[in-house]
Amino acid sequence: MHIHEYQAKTLFSRNNIKTPKGVLIANTKEASKACSELGGGIWVVKAQVHAGGRGKGGGVILCYDVEAVENACEKLLGSQLITPQTDAKGLPVNQLLIEAGQNIKQELYLGLLVDRQTQKITVLASLEGGMDIEKVASETPDKIIKFGVDPLGTLSLQDCDSIAQQLNLTEMLTEQFNQTLLSLYEIFTTKDASLIEINPLIVTVENTLLALDGKIDFDDNALYRHEDIIELRDTSQEDEKEKEAGEYQLNYISLDGTIGCMVNGAGLAMATMDLIEHHGGSPANFLDVGGGTTAQRVAKAFELIQTEANVGGVLVNIFGGIVRCDLIAEGILQAIEKVGLSLPIVVRLEGTNAQQGLALLSGSKYNIYTEADLTQAAIKIVALSQEQSK
Ligand code: ADP
Ligand code: MG
Asked: Are 279 and 383 in a shared domain?
């Protein structure tokens, strides 16, 4: 689960990590009051969306007077913000964080994540933080310091010290850095985060270390034990289809391709997507309808796929173990009754009651191709969807 920058910063503050003063607003009318509350003469208006790269997308605006702040608010509130990290549609801006502008001397990067390769919580730190950190990571990876925390131990003060030393921080900054890193680690482990990032972590002209940005992702599987975190969820930032799918216990992820996939089991779904690619097509989604699925759920899944704008064909691949293939067939027919059938569809059913299922489909009044062999099914749907797009 993702949260907003302002929420991450609240968590940071509670754990003694310094952040700039800021006021959250949802209406331009609140802007001038926010500015006087913050004081000073420079403010930064920051769009609250679940994506980074806001600076590059025009979602972080530096303002030198209240009128400019109001103009920035007017421009951003209610808009869709597109950044290098969103899709072409962008994300809705419903809230803004107005912050006191800081005197930045240096922008560092500090992050914590689970490194799957070493199976350790890993600290990433760099002196070259800021909006081009991705470039630093790909072109000069040696400028990023990596430290894997011993899974049987914890992150110690000595560990922090050695990271600070590698960064060549002064003694005064080292103390603040250590405090920040230890607090980050505390948040990471007690709240079951999967990623925390402060980019940039700035050194101000006054030599204070401040978290100027904040990103925290939480492990969905551990959310049940963090009611305080669940409360931070903002569904306006979630993909409509994925949200709808979640309500039907369907694991659905939108992708860029043209072939809609409906499969049971995550492993089989991935193998099916690979096979589509192998035969020259590209999947429009990942969809696992689950093990003990119902006709109603299948119908919903089918509806979701069919209404995806770029879809040129649908491949259904069900291996009936717990789930019965005749139920799947009924679900598909129910969905077609409801939403119509505008796309070519190839169905491969294997396992429990596969013959009954296939008979139901081929006996229907609709033009449904059935295939017993998965490779043939993939080749067929790629060909049909290419014809469709001509
Ligand atoms: P994103 O990572 O989504 O682009 P950031 O919060 O990191 O958004 O902001 C982008 C850049 O804007 C920062 O690297 C920093 O240079 C500048 N910035 C952000 N907040 C402030 C602030 N309060 N004062 C001064 N500059 C800021
Ligand atoms: Mg940032």
From this structure: yes
Containing structural domain, residue 303:
240-389
Residue 109 is a catalytic residue: yes
> pLDDT tens-digit profile of 295-322?
788 888 888 888 777 899 999 999 888 7
For residue 390, the model assigns a pLDDT of 73
Q: Do both 249 and 166 map to the same domain? A: no
- Does 224 score more than 90 pLDDT? yes
Closest ligand 1 atom to 100 CA: 23
**DSSP-based three-state secondary structure for 106:** strand
Q: Are 87 and 93 contacting, i.e. CB atoms less than 8 angstroms apart?
A: no
As a whole number of angstroms, the distance between CA 1 and CA 265 comes to 22
**Residue of 213, 215, 237 to test ligand 1 pocket, by largest number of atoms within 8 Å of CB:** 213
Beta pairing partners, 99: 22, 44
227 as an active site residue: the answer is no
Q: Nearest 5°: CA angle at 115, between 173 and 241?
A: 110
Give the list of residues 6+ apart from residue 151 with CB closer than 8 angstroms, or none. Answer: 119, 120, 121
For 228-262, write each residue's pLDDT tens digit: 999 999 999 998 888 888 888 888 988 889 999 99
What residues does the ion ligand 2 have nearby, CB within 5 Å?
199, 213
The reported pTM is 0.83
* Catalytic site residue from 197, 252, 330, 369: 197
